Amino acid sequence: MKKINSLFVALSLIGSSLMFTACGKDTYEGNGGSQTISNEVIVSENITGNTTWSKDKTYILAGRISVVTGVTLTIEPGTIIKGQAGTGANATALIVARGGKLMAEGTATEPIIFTSIADEIKSGEIASPNLPADFNGLWGGLIVLGDASCSLEGDVTELSIEGIPPTDANGLYGGTNAEDNSGVIKYVSVRHGGANIGEGNEINGITFGGVGSGTTVENVEVVANQDDGIEWFGGTVNVKNAIVWNAGDDAVDTDQAWAGTLDNFIIICGDETDHALEIDGPEGSMNAGHTVTNGWVKGHAASELGDFRKNAQGAFTKIYFFNFDGGMADGRGDMSLSSGSDVTFGDGSLTFADLEITTDSTDLTKIFKGGTDAHASSVAAATNAGADVAPFAGWSWAAKEEAYK
Fold first, then answer.
1. Of 37, 241, 286, 363, which one is least surrounded by beta carbons within 10 A?
2. 39 near 57, Cβ under 8 Å?
3. What is the pLDDT of residue 198?
4. Domain count for the chain
5. What is the CATH number of the domain that holds 336?
6. 405 in any annotated domain
7. What whole-number distance in Å separates Cα of residue 250 and Cα of residue 325?
């Protein structure tokens, strides 16, 4: 009922916002069909020339907007970007196409915020003044695509990213350039997204598809996304200081032999979060693993620690879990190796070390299954494992609310 009431409020706010902007004086500026109404810039077409978005305006995504190949979009610190409501082919999203660049360099005092048009937040604010932190699905999300290798079914070299209709060529990802550079993403918060484009096909908060190691990603936050918080599809990009709060499906999801590192992260599970970690293996003949380290994972009664699926590969170290119902009979509150991941665990391409949990259960085999208990300990508080929360202070909504405690 809370979600239904919130939806009614959000739709009312969207309508009010559209009525307000319709009364303004229209002027036009920039590339990609952007229309300025008062201090709001409605972006309705792809960005086809180098463009800068500044914090003195609010940018409204009126559809699926792509930064096309060869073009750079620069977003200044403190800028607010809002997505209009839409589902299916009309779901709003910002896509950085393969060969395009996003230079979104916020700061610890002026983060860049992607959110819904229903959000009344203004530049200089951190928390939404009107939307709760568990309200999701109001728009799409941020999708960054690159030219790095991915392990794809049939050993094809490129594929259309999930969440985008396959007819859109700007949704292609994958290639051969491990050092591909899609730009810089720093101090960026993405909120209230995950619109559904089809049955079981939602947009993640932040999606990385074939993104290369030349891309810089540091200090990113996803709040209240209807699907996954952050998902990697292949590529080699490294991510440092990431926080995911109230994901509607999985908080962190990896696929198609992503070969980068996630270092220093916080996951805060909500009442719709399925897994804190969902790790999928290669889909083609190319094999590669990633490193996930220095994590702090706050659980929920509805959530599982992690699910390692067929041929999952990588190193998972120094992760501290708490607030889980450990080893429930229905599978909640555990960390398991699904069929096929026991093979990669056995041959050493899937490894665990310094996994720690605070739990009432003294039998770790009920929580860390398939042999992962050999690498875990039950503690009163994090000792060798866990994240450094200091980098999230000041700019992230989750840190402002101390939601990770």
1. 363
2. yes
3. 65
4. 1
5. 2.160.20
6. no
7. 17
C-alpha to C-alpha distance for 313 and 310, rounded to whole angstroms:
9
What is the H or E stretch that residue 41 is in? strand 40-43
pLDDT in tens, 234-264: 999 999 999 999 999 999 999 999 999 999 9
Per residue in 37-61, pLDDT (tens digit) is: 679 999 999 999 999 999 999 999 9
Which structural domain, as residue segments, surrounds residue 159? 2-400
What is the pairing mode between strands 201-202 and 196-198?
A: antiparallel
Distance CA 99, CA 96 (A): 8
Question: In this structure, how many other beta carbons lie within 10 angstroms of the beta carbon of residue 138?
Answer: 30
Q: Is the dihedral of CA 317, 321, 324, 327 positive or negative?
A: positive
Which tops the pLDDT comparison, 17 or 242?
A: 242
22 contacts: CB under 8 Å, gap ≥ 6: 37
Q: What is the 8-class DSSP label of residue 344?
A: H
Query: What's the pLDDT score for residue 328?
Result: 64
Residue 322 included in any domain: yes
Residue 32 lies in a domain: yes
Tokens 């200089």 — which residue? 124
Tokens of 108: 């610890």
Query: 284: burial class by Cβ within 10 Å (0-12, 13-18, 19+)?
Result: middle
Structural domain contains residue 194 = yes
Beta bridge mates, 40 = 37, 58
Q: Is-contact 344 281, C-beta < 8 A?
A: yes
Closest C-alpha to 183, from 217, 232, 147? 217
Residue 317: what pLDDT? 96
